[in-house]
Structures are given as structure tokens and as C-alpha cells.
UniProtKB/TrEMBL annotation:
The protein's name in its UniProt record: PyrR protein
Origin organism lineage: Bacteria, Pseudomonadati, Bacteroidota, Cytophagia, Cytophagales
Chain ranges of the Phosphoribosyltransferase domain: 7-160
SUPFAM superfamilies: PRTase-like
Pfam annotation, one family: Pribosyltran
PANTHER family in UniProt: BIFUNCTIONAL PROTEIN PYRR (PTHR11608)
Alphabetical list of CDD domains matching this protein: PRTases_typeI
Cited InterPro entries: PRTase-like, PRTase_dom, PyrR_bifunctional
Length: 183
């Protein structure tokens, strides 16, 4: 099997725009709503969502980066030490509506860890989850995104790779690929 392009330009831009329109329908002025991009890869999508929402609404929207490395249930099961990413949340989430944003939703374990990590910043009024790509048939915990860009059927020997052009990768356009792992 060959690698398959799931979303290329302009489909990816249209998908992000659609997700933003759904957020606007549910949050209108975003006065009590904040965005949290999950480290490491969800922050690139979160930045694009924030930029697009602000251009649609004319409102400043708080965006933070949340790392849940030390809250994962597999943290101590790894052979080598894990490197944490930066958490950057310079606002309180107490009483706020929080939209967690990640690029790929797989088993749900990262989101579970993020929910645990988030409590250090207050108790939100409500938490919603936005995922660009959802891998079907792989859920390990009873968590599912509220906003979904694309659902895709995958096998265990495949992964979803999201390439962002400004992430330091040497790509000219944003793309989402279904990659067949070696072996």
C-alpha cells in the first residue's frame, strides 16, 4: 500500500474554516471561551484556528499551549526518558469554556491526560474537543471530539501525519497524510 493524501491544499483550509464556523455557531462572541492547543502537534492547528476565528469575528481570543506528558498513563512505561514540551497558559481557565485542540485523535489517552493537566489552571465551566483528523476503531477511553475535521479508517500499522508549512518542515503546503509504517 502506498501513502495516501487525506487532505491537501485547499481542502485542509476549507476544513479548518468549517471547524471555525461550527465554533462560532456555538460560542458566538468568544468572550468566555479560550483555546488550548495540545503539545506538541495540536498547537499548530490551534494557531490556525485562532487566526481564522479572529478574522471571522474581529475578537481577540486567548490561546494557550498545554503539555500533558507527565499526566499520561504510559509515562513511566517508556524505555527512555520523555521530554516535556512547554505549557504556556497566561490566563485562568476557571469558569471558562475551553476548547482543547489537537491535530489527530487516536486512542483518546492524550486527551484524558490533558484533562487531568488542565486542572492546574482552574476548573472550566465546560470543555470541548476539536480534532482535525479522527482515527476510527482505535478508541481506548470513552472520549470523543465535539468538532471533527475528517474521520479516517486506519490500521494499526498506519499513522496519520499532519505537515504544517511553517512548522519547520520542508513542505510548501499544509497536508495530511495516511502513512504506512515500515515492518
Amino acid at each position: 500500500m502506498q501513502n495516501r493524501l487525506l487532505l491537501g491544499h485547499p481542502q485542509l483550509a476549507i476544513t479548518i474554516g468549517r471547524l471555525c464556523q461550527q465554533l462560532i455557531e456555538n460560542h458566538q462572541n468568544f468572550g468566555n471561551t479560550v483555546l488550548l492547543g495540545l503539545q506538541p502537534r495540536g498547537i499548530f492547528l490551534a494557531e490556525r484556528v485562532k487566526e481564522r476565528l479572529e478574522s471571522f469575528t474581529g475578537t481577540d481570543i486567548n490561546l494557550g499551549y498545554l503539555d500533558a506528558t507527565f499526566f499520561r498513563d504510559d509515562f513511566r512505561r517508556r524505555d527512555s526518558p520523555v521530554r516535556a514540551n512547554a505549557t504556556k497558559i497566561d490566563f485562568l481557565i476557571e469558569g471558562k469554556k475551553v476548547i482543547l485542540i489537537d491535530d489527530v485523535f487516536y486512542t483518546g489517552r492524550s486527551v484524558k491526560a490533558a484533562l487531568d493537566a488542565m486542572t492546574a489552571f482552574g476548573r472550566p465551566e465546560k470543555v470541548e474537543l476539536l480534532a482535525l483528523v479522527v482515527r476510527n476503531y482505535a478508541k481506548h477511553v470513552p472520549i470523543f471530539p465535539d468538532y471533527i475535521g475528517k474521520k479516517v479508517n486506519t490500521l494499526d500499522n498506519q499513522k496519520v501525519l499532519v505537515e504544517w508549512k511553517n512548522e519547520g518542515e520542508k513542505v510548501d503546503e499544509d497536508n495530511v497524510w495516511l502513512i504506512n509504517k515500515e515492518g
